[in-house]
Write a structure and sequence with these properties.
By secondary structure, the chain is of the alpha+beta class. The protein is built from 20 helices and nine strands. The strands form three sheets. A five-stranded antiparallel sheet has the order 3-2-8-7-6. The chain has a two-stranded antiparallel ribbon with strand order 1-9. Strands 4-5 form a two-stranded antiparallel ribbon. Its EC number is 3.5.1.2.
Length: 439
Amino acid sequence: YASVNSCVGSNIVLLTQAFRRKFVIPDFEIFTSHIDSLHETAKKTSGGKVADYIPQLAKFSPDLWGVSLCTVDGQRHSIGDTKVPFCLQSCVKPLKYAIAINDLGTEYVHQYVGKEPSGLRFNKLFLNEEDKPHNPMVNAGAIVVTSLIKSERESGDRNFAIGYYLKEKKCFPEGSDMTSILDFYFQLCSIEVTCESGSVMAATLANGGICPITGERVLSPEAVRNTLSLMHSCGMYDFSGQFAFHVGLPSKSGVSGGILLVVPNVMGIMCWSPPLDKLGNSVKGIQFCHDLVSLFNFHNYDNLRHFAKKLDPRREGGEVRVKSVINLLFAAYTGDVSALRRFALSAMDMEQRDYDSRAALHVAAAEGHVEVIRFLLEACKVSPFPKDRWGNTPLDEAIHFGHHDVVSILQEYQNNYKHPEDSNNGKGKHSQENIDSMV
């Protein structure tokens, strides 16, 4: 017992979550099979060029491609070349900004750097109207942030030029040594990671600043919130607006081919593939991110009610079905035709039953909601004959509760109803047309 207790004691919460399937992604095996498929699809994406202006980066094979993820509960999965070390490069920018905010506070840091997208190249010699770098995700802003917290150097002439420009404009804190600041900046950009370790960094941001592996608080909630906000608006170079529009998740790319992707409160992902597009982002990484939010409802503005065709890995299959049935029957109970119309348009099964085998038509008939009855029969083409646990049909319910208008409608539809086997061809198409006509 003592030996078991010593092994389990410190991990009892983790083990309890595992046995109860209470992790943020309950069906992790199914989820990771989808991730593997997305990785394989992106692997076929061609194009791009490995960055060659930094000699160490030019040595990487363009065929390298890896994806690692780590959830806020510490669930981990990797596929591809995830153990190959590479430099963080610009992927370090959100991390050092978060450290600066954590140590010095938002107000102090933003005395020296702005919060707006620049609309310019990341290494442009340009400041905003207040003579500050536009944001911490461009080189000028990252150098200033480095000054606040204090291999690549030989190819860093552009950054030295930016440094002198910032010094001339008095962007650094008083008494700062520009050369030592740039040395530190280059060291931070040269930090070596793998996809696996990078995914834990991303997961720490997804987890509000607490490392999901150690349970240690690394960053304050304020630092994480500010960092994710800027990653969302400025993290992907000149592609930031497009990425925010199509993917809708905080991210940061680097010229080494990495993309640090955060799904808040769910997981962090590190993608890595050296070939870059003309804007400096990993070609395969961008494809993977697009495919990820096409399959799962991770986009910040995916609405769970209207994107029913997207998968939600945060729920177990049974939980999704239970909530679906509850929402459907409650809308029928309250006579909420608008809600029923939304459900129908999002491809919900309008004939699904509860534990007593009662369908929405049963509930609407018992409550006497004529508009709901008409919508279900005319637009959704549900069967007027479903029987519940006790053998009662919606017509029986309407008769029992004295809803004569509903009785008339149901009798008419029962007399004219064609069974599915008689009209299977084109049923889905006609149902959709009927629903569209009632929008």
